[in-house]
């Protein structure tokens, strides 16, 4: 791309013509550390609460379906508003929106920890997710400005992807330690001092934003895509309560389809779309985002179900449940570090397919765990295989999504992959949690004991996550490289 003839989009949106790139920091690696710390918090908060769910559910009077919404209430506004957050950052400044989003995230975290009712907690989680939707795309834009050279940017994006993957796994361990030692409120309060550190450090490392870029905000596009996501998750969640054929379920499904169609039509006709649809002509980007959508669905549902299974079925306390997931987290971190070497030897596509197949195998193994499972016999082996598969799949799916993307579109590609992960997580959890609850109810009706019935429900959920991983492997396996894509395996 010739930067003199085409604007440089650095977020999940098309940028109008603006000023040329400027140096934002003389300490860019230190600035990247601060940005990555903020990204770590954003991803961590989708998983850290999992271990605390049974405890806070007892104290706030929330049943299993309501507990699933503690996760969904965060993931849904995060995924649904990411694209609008990027557009706002383009208009009003990346540094400014990053700081606004971080401040909102810190405030909402404090309110979540102070919650005395389930409704208050869900409201605080929704504000957390909306704030994260401002923070994350702005951070990606700042990253692309800090590292304009393709080689340095690839390293920075690799660190970014590794931090996101590690944050998902580390959340369950940290959540167990905090819940056992300080109570469930600590999983939210921990964000406050870290967020304040980010708010203090970043203005010292990154220069002020240039003048705002004029342009019209695509609010119709943002409204329709957010409404479509809310309706889709609502339809999936209502299946467990009222059934497939209930007017509420059907009405929400129709609304989701109609709003999704409206979004596509709006984006095709508007001069400044929220998502320029032409970017999906890059087959690598499209395939990578579809794989990440499926991987996000599997990841969020897995960490939710595994945390509840260990405590509600096997009787682990919060600390033991967190420590029991240390092998999974350790395997993920180790493979995340080795993934670049694996890609260099095998290529992105083979590494991704192999990782997803390993993930599916581990999930199928876990689905066979009984209600009286022994950790060493039934949990440890699947956890290690799942961690290896997750670590390789997350990094290589991110790599595939930016394969062949020109330097000026790196921010756009990064924003889309983040959105795909969050949307997949919201939809996957809603679908599989409803499936698990329905299976548990059927087993209880048939006379199964409480632990056996719960185990049967979780088994179906783990089978569902394995199915997502297998479909992802199929998508990656048949993906054709774009003609202009040239994967640099040695990078």
TrEMBL record:
Its main location: membrane. GO terms for cellular component: plasma membrane. The keyword Nucleotide-binding does not apply. The keyword Lipid metabolism does not apply. InterPro entries: MFS, MFS_dom, MFS_trans_sf. It holds the Pfam family MFS_1. Residues 31-484 form the Major facilitator superfamily (MFS) profile domain. Gene3D superfamilies: MFS general substrate transporter like domains, Multidrug resistance protein D. One of its GO terms (molecular function) is transmembrane transporter activity. It is found in: Cell membrane. This is MFS transporter. Keywords: Cell membrane, Membrane, Transmembrane, Transmembrane helix, Transport. The chain crosses the membrane at residues 29-53, 65-85, 97-121, 127-147, 159-180, 186-207, 219-239, 245-266, 287-310, 322-344, 351-369, 375-395, 416-438, 458-479. It is a multi-pass membrane protein. Residues 1-20 are annotated as: Disordered.
